Amino acid sequence: MAEGKKLVARCKVKATHTGKGIGLTPEYDPGWPQLFDREAARIQSVLGHRILAIEHVGSTSVPGLAAKPKIDIVLVVANSADEAAYVPALEAAGYVLKTREPDWYEHRMLKGPDTDVNLHVFSQGCTEIERMLLFRNWLRGNPEDRRLYEQTKRNLAQRSWKYMQNYADAKSDVVVEILARAQKAVKLDHNETINSKV
Predict the structure, then answer these.
(1) Are 124 and 78 in contact (CB under 8 A)?
(2) Which of 41, 141, 153, 176 has an alpha carbon 20 to 30 Å from 135's alpha carbon atom?
(3) Hey, what CATH class is 2-197 in?
(4) Domain residue ranges in the chain
(5) Confidence (pLDDT) at 191
(6) Can you tell me the distance from the alpha carbon of 163 to that of 79, in angstroms, rounded to the nearest whole number?
(7) Computed from CA positions of residues 76, 81, 86, 88, in that sequence, does the dihedral angle turn out positive or negative?
């Protein structure tokens, strides 16, 4: 469980001083997937075959979930530590490298040129990709946990936070709880599939 909290505590943005509450939208914005599609097309146009996968993640990727109006994108490349293979092309398209975390899955994060985007870059096979997609997919299909997560976010968003990291850390317990249910369900589905083939 401690490892799960450690992973969740990794904030998607640097420690930014806010001194205020977190701005969640009152409700889900159906325009968010189109913003993702536009950014994905822009990234595809400059990186082409270097993209192994590109996914819309975070709260804006979950229909029905209120969120900060920020599009989180996971970009999977062969080796995220090899910045020369992708960063210059993204910078030419207007992205700015903001975060370099060699000790955490060689994560890189770039900000978008004209839309509030966090572009998270990981290497193929990174377990954080699987975790992020599992969380997204579980929230998309599980209204109870989606409501729990949204209520937690709304409660926390009303507080004043000195740093965005503090807000992210405060969500850790509920994220770990939801991920545990999602992982258990995936294991059960996997076991049922195996048993049905025997």
Answers:
(1) yes
(2) 41
(3) alpha beta
(4) 2-197
(5) 59
(6) 30
(7) positive
Kindly state the tokens that stand for 167.
């807000």
Sign of the dihedral defined by the CA atoms of residues 187, 193, 196, 198, in that order: negative
Dist. CA 197–CA 191, nearest whole Å: 10
Average pLDDT over residues 16-33: 72
In degrees, to the nearest 5, what angle opens at C-alpha 79 toward C-alphas 164 and 183?
Answer: 60
State the DSSP string of 164-189.
HHHHHHHTHHHHHHHHHHHHHHHHHH
| Rounded-to-integer distance, Cα 77 and Cα 168, Å | 26
Q: What is the mean pLDDT of residues 177-188?
A: 92
For 156, other C-beta atoms within 10 Å of its C-beta total: 19
pLDDT exceeds 80 at position 4: no
- For residues 156 and 167, the answer to whether their CB atoms sit within 8 Å is yes
CB atoms within 10 A of CB 113: 14
CB of 183 within 8 A of CB of 46? no
Q: DSSP readout, 97-134?
A: EEEEETTSTTEEEEE-SSS-EEEEEEETT-HHHHHHHH
Question: What Cα–Cα distance (Å) separates residue 179 from each residue in 39, 52, 121?
Answer: 27, 25, 21
CB atoms closer than 10 angstroms to residue 143: 10
Integer Cα distance of 178 and 143 in angstroms? 12
DSSP H or E run through 159 = none
Q: Tell me the backbone φ, ψ of residue 81, rounded to 5 degrees.
A: -70, -20
